[in-house]
């Protein structure tokens, strides 16, 4: 592939980045390291990592649809445990870690918004963040900073994360190769749809709650 497309270097083309990432994670589905990699990505994404685990989950489930629900379980488990790490960072280490996360990982404005919502709707804020494409790390860390109830935090995380990943697994389990062909054919449109869902999740947090 050429290093440029329509005069732009490849590293400045988001769709090309996404396509390369998709092609890269697909190969993990056939390696011995697929399951540990899925757990690790899900774990670190809940506190510091920018790439959502859905990408690897989909790649693995498309490669082996019969294992889709097992992969969803691993993804959910890693994400919930990783969420606890984010909670611990917020609860115990926020003053020391603040300069790393703001503005490198998320903005001060967004973090302040999440803190305000936690004052009224802590369970539902965690659940919406866990279920939608909103970057979950903002909410796990803010949950610790706000000292929200740990039991409610874990419950909302487990329900929201499991629902999200098992829905993905169910679709890929029943559609299998058809889903793979659809994703590859309409990849750019699906990337756009993901962005719209991401924005919609923030609107739901900001306007409805």
Description:
The protein has 209 residues and is mostly helical. The protein has 10 helices and 2 strands. It has helices spanning 14-26, 34-45, 54-63, 68-92, 94-101, 108-131, 136-145, 150-175, 177-185, 187-208; strands spanning 4-5, 8-9. Helix 2 runs antiparallel to helix 3, helix 2 packs parallel to helix 4 (68-92) and helix 4 (68-92) packs parallel to helix 7 (136-145). It is elongated and about 45 Å long. The N and C termini lie far apart (47 Å).
Offer a quick outline of the entry.
The protein has helices at about 15-25, 35-45, 55-65, 70-90, 95-100, 110-130, 135-145, 150-175, 175-185, 185-209, and strands spanning about 5, 10. It is an all-alpha fold and about 210 residues long.
**Largest beta sheet: strand ordering:** 1-2
Mean pLDDT: 78
Q: Name the helicity range.
A: over 70%
Major sheet: 2 strands, antiparallel
Instruction: State the helix count.
Output: 10
Derived structural class: mainly alpha
Number of strands: 2
CA gyration radius, whole angstroms: 18 Å
Termini separation comes to: 47 Å
Strand percentage:
under 5%
Low-pLDDT parts are 1-14
The H/E string reads EEHHHHHHHHHH
Based on Cα principal axes, name the global outline: elongated
């Amino acid at each position: 592939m050429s290093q440029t497309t329509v005069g732009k270097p490849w590293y400045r083309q988001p769709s090309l980045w996404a396509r390369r990432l998709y092609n890269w994670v697909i190969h993990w589905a056939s390696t011995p390291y697929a399951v540990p990699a899925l757990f690790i990505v899900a774990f670190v994404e809940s506190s510091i990592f920018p790439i959502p685990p859905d990408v690897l989950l989909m790649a693995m489930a498309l490669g082996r649809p019969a294992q889709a629900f097992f992969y969803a379980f691993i993804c959910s488990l890693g994400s919930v445990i990783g969420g606890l790490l984010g909670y611990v960072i917020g609860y115990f280490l926020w003053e020391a870690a603040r300069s790393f996360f703001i503005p490198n990982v998320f903005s001060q404005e967004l973090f302040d918004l999440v803190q305000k919502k936690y004052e009224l709707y802590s369970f539902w804020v965690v659940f919406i963040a866990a279920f939608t494409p909103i970057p979950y790390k903002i909410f796990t860390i803010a949950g610790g900073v706000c000292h929200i109830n740990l039991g409610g935090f874990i419950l909302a995380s487990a329900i929201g994360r499991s629902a999200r990943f098992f829905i993905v697994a169910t679709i890929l389990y029943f559609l299998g190769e058809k889903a793979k062909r659809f994703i590859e054919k309409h990849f750019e449109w699906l990337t756009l749809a993901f962005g719209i869902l991401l924005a919609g999740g923030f609107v739901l947090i900001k306007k409805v709650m």
